[in-house]
Structures are given as structure tokens and as C-alpha cells.
Amino acid sequence: MLSIERKSLESLAALALFTFAFLGSEFFFDRRMGTLLPAEGVVGAQALILGASVVGFLAFAALSKLPRAQAWVPFTETAGAIACLIAVLMLDDATALQVAGCAGFFFLGCAGAEAHWNMARAFEGSPSLAKGAGSAYAAGILLQFANNQFIPTGAWEVAMLCAGAAALGALLFFTRDDTNAERHGENACTSENANTTTSPSTTENVQPLNRALWSVALVAILACLFSTLDGVTTLSDAQGSIAVDEWPRLFLAASGLVAGIVFDIRERRYMGFVMFGVMLLSIISILAVEAGASPVIGLIVFFFSSGFFVTFFTTMFLQLAPRMRTPQLWVGMGRAANNVCAFTISGASLALTQAGVVAVMIASIVLFMLASTAFIGAGLFRLPPTAREREVTEAGLAAESAPSAEELQAEFIARYGLTPRETDVLRAVACDERPLKQIADDLGISLRMVQRHLTNIYEKTDTQTRTGLTKEFMGK
Question: b or e along 409-429 (b: 16 or more beta carbons within 10 Å of the residue's beta carbon)?
């Protein structure tokens, strides 16, 4: 039990360190690019590094299949990220800075996928999966907040980010488990082919690949929605009266923790419904701010919803990935899909928020309809069974698969090679307590013949009494 708990804590720490290193490095890269490029150029540069991180998330599945990958991949990932961070600090050419940033975020994407994979293995089947995802996210946000508030920008900031990346690499290395990983991958293939569930919270009767694709679509749609909410809030607060870099970050961490607790209620039976409610709240806040409500409302809802959203897509793919044929590819797909949308739709979302209330309202309705369809397609509106319901279902399936009384009796007769007449006598003797004389009359044979057949049956079945023979034949 202690080893399991230690492994879970190590996987939580690794995911928290990844969140800290990723968000902190993104923030640092944007500032460095801001000294060399105008605002529009920084947005484009950020899009490229997020795209590179997506490639890293997807590449981990291939890297993990290489010979002895568990031994050297963690060091390569984090050492590459650290080298690129130092290069971003020292370079003064925008092109070189962009190349270093893309390379660094590729390595961070690989490390992030591995951190997600370790957590999926440590928490597989756990009733606290969402709490773990929410806690790791909150811890990463708090580390980033502390780094921004208390560490001087520049070399010291990079030193802290490098220390976080190094600690992440050490955790990934020392928590590796080659044998378990291989066995787990084989079990995942078998699980997918048999369409069986490996987690108490997975939705039954939904093909894993079908559900995974719908889940990716859902993450993309919700990312569009929250990007629009962010744009509405930003434009409505043009005077900068809200310090987005300070207290809202703490609110974001708190919402991640709350999301984990709420999602895990009744083995995550209601996670889809809760997230659907959060989506509705976000849509309402978009329309309210566009109609003239205080931008503070939109900001609060945005950070509240964002914490729920990150915990939601992290948990969803952590519990789904072990059922897939290539689990290492899918385990970080939620973060990858979110990053793709972050750099592909930011411009469209900004243009939409500037188009007026009517355009925003129409877009919100369209996003609501698309998201509702994706929720249904991903099976998130079907209540997964509770532990008790699964026990009843398994007992029913076992009863259905058990051989019938007629099949057991036929097997008994065949096993001991009973003749047709011996079978008739056996059935007559076992069905009730009629005297042998009456059985002889009913069968139309003599009492002596019934006794002879019964003696032969006793010898063949190694029984000695009528009662014992009946119990063996009836399977009692």
C-alpha cells in the first residue's frame, strides 16, 4: 500500500512540475519575444511554440517504443528543455529565439506526455483520479504564481524553471517501470479489442476509439468557447483595472481543486453533467458581458471555468488512455488538443468578440449545439455504473454464462458413459422419491432390472446411495 501511495504522489509531483515548467516557460518566452517583436509578432511566435508542444505530446508514443527508452528519454526531454530555456535567455535574434523556443516546447511536450502517462498508470481504477489531476494542476499554478511574484525576472527566473524541469526529469526517471509499462500496453490492446472497461468510471458500451475522437472534438469546441470568453473579458476591460497576473491565478488553482473534488463524486458518474453546467455558465457570462455587465463577472467565470476545463480534459484522457491500443499517444491528448486550439483560434475569437452582440450570440448558440453533440458522442451523458451496479451486472453475466441444469446432467451422463436405459433409470430415481417398484412399473421393466441398472450406475459414478447419486446428478 505504501509503495502505491508513494508512486501516486510521485506522479502528482511530476504533473505539477510539468504544469509549472510549461506555463512558466511560455510566460518567459512571450516576454523575451516582446522585447524583439511587436504584439502581433509575439502572438504568432507563441502559436508556433504551442504547436511544437503538440508535436512533442504526440511524439512521446513513438519515443517510448524505442529500445530502453525508459532509461534515457526522461533525461533527453528535460535536458533539451533546459538547454533551450538558457538559449532563450541569452539569444537576441528573433529567428534564433523562435527556433530555440520551438525546440524547448517540443521537449516539454514529450515530458508532459510522459508525466501524464505515469499518472494514468498510478491512478488507473482509482476513485480519486480527478482529485489527483486537479491537485497537480493547482500545485503547478501555485508554483508559477510564486515564481512570478517572488523571483526576479531574467536569469533567476530561468534558474527556477530549469530547476523545475530537472526535478521533473528526475521524477520521470526514478518512477519508470519497464515491465509494468510493457504489460500495461499489452493489456490495453486486449482491453480495447474486447471492449471491456478497466476503470470504474469508464462509460460502458462505447467503443474506445469512437469515444476518444468525440472527446478530442469536445476539448476543441470547449477551448473555442473559453477563448471567446477570455476575449470578451479582455476587450471589456480595456482600461486594465483587473490584475490578471495576480489574484485570478490563485482563483484558477482553487477552481482546479474544487473541480477534482466535484468530478470524483460517485466515481465520476456526474463529471460530464457538471462540465456541461460549467459550459452553460460560461456561455451566459459571455452574453452578459457583451450586454454590458461588469467584466469582473466574465473574468471570475473564465478562471473558474478554466480550472474545471483543465481538470476535466486531463481526467477524461487519463481514464480513457489505458483502454486504447497506443495509450501513450492518447494520455496527453486533452492538453494537445487544447494547445492546438489555443494557437489556431485565438485570432478568430478576438475578431468575433469585436463583431458585436448579435455575432457573439449566434456563435455561442452554435458552440452550444456542437458541444452538446460532442458530449453525447463521447458518452458523457450516460451514467456509468456504481460499484454495486457493476457487481450485480457481473453476477448476472456469470449466471448467464453458467451451464444450465440440463447441460450439467447431459455432461454427467456422457462423463460416466451411461446407457440409454441406465439414463432412464437415473432420471426416474433422481426426480423424486418414488419406490423402485413404482419406477419399474412406470418404465415397464421388472424390479430386478431396475435394481441391476441402479447397481451399474453406482459402480460407474462411484456413489453408494440413492441420495448421493441424486446430489451428484443434480449438481447440488
Answer: beebbeebebeeebbbbbebb
Cα–Cα distance, 175 to 78 (Å, whole number): 15
Which residue in this structure is represented by grid cell 471589456? 236
| One-character DSSP codes across 2-39 | HHHHHHHHHHHHHHHHHHHHHHHHHHHHHHHHHTTS-H
Q: How many CA atoms lie within 13 A of 404 on its CB side?
A: 3
**In the predicted model, what is the mean pLDDT of residues 114-140?**
93
Residue type, 364: S
Angstrom distances, CA of residue 288 to CA of 75, 243, 282, 400:
48, 21, 10, 55
Instruction: Encode pLDDT of 443-475 as tens digits.
Output: 888 888 988 988 988 888 888 888 888 888 887
Gyration radius from the chain CA atoms = 32
Mean of pLDDT values over 404-425: 86
Whole-angstrom CA distances from 158 to 82, 86, 90 are: 9, 7, 11
Q: Give pLDDT tens digits for 346-368.
A: 666 666 666 667 777 888 888 89
Q: Say yes or no to pLDDT of 150 above 80.
A: yes
The dihedral sign for the CA sequence 46, 333, 310, 5: negative
**Residue 322 DSSP one-character state:** G
Place of cell 488507473: 124
For residue 415, the Cα-to-chain-centroid distance in whole angstroms is 50
Residues 147, 157 contacting (CB under 8 angstroms): yes
Instruction: Please tell me the pTM assigned to this model.
Output: 0.74
Q: What is the Cα–Cα distance from 301 to 304, expressed in whole angstroms?
A: 5
User: What secondary structure letter does DSSP report for 404?
Assistant: P
Helix, strand, coil proportions of the chain in percent (round to 5)?
Answer: 80, 0, 20
Q: Is the dihedral of CA 189, 192, 194, 200 positive or negative?
A: positive
DSSP state of 453: H
Does residue 328 contact residue 109 with C-beta atoms inside 8 Å? Answer: no
- Alpha carbon separation from 474 to 53, 427, 459, 464 (Å, rounded): 66, 10, 18, 16
Spatial CA neighbour of 165 closest among 87, 100, 89, 77:
77
Residue 400: exposure state from Cβ atoms within 10 A (0-12, 13-18, ≥19): exposed
Q: C-alpha angle 168/169/175, rounded to 5°? A: 90
| Sign, CA torsion 232/234/235/236 | positive
The predicted pLDDT at position 383 comes to: 63
Distance CA 168, CA 14 (A): 5
Evaluate whether 439 touches 450 at the Cβ level (below 8 Å).
yes
